[in-house]
Amino acid sequence: MATKGEAGAYPSAARISDSPCYLQYSASLKCLEEFGSDKSKCQDHFDVYKECKKKEREARLERNKTRSLFS
């Protein structure tokens, strides 16, 4: 286990704030804060965020195809 001064076990793992989808994520949270328990009013924000994450994942998978564990 890493101590406070060391990098974590996954130093390259992205934080949500580093994600290209951070703006969509923030908009979804802001909507939830504004409308509270009425999540239906935020569905458009959720859909945009979900689509962004899908594209982000597809791009990551495509990048990983070109990488080799043995080179």
Automatic annotation (TrEMBL):
Pfam families for the chain: CHCH (PF06747)
Residue span(s) of domain CHCH: 21-55
Entries under PROSITE patterns matching the protein: CHCH (PS51808)
Keyword NAD: no
Keywords, sorted A to Z: Disulfide bond
Entry annotated with the keyword Ribonucleoprotein: no
Domain of life: Eukaryota
Protein name: CHCH domain
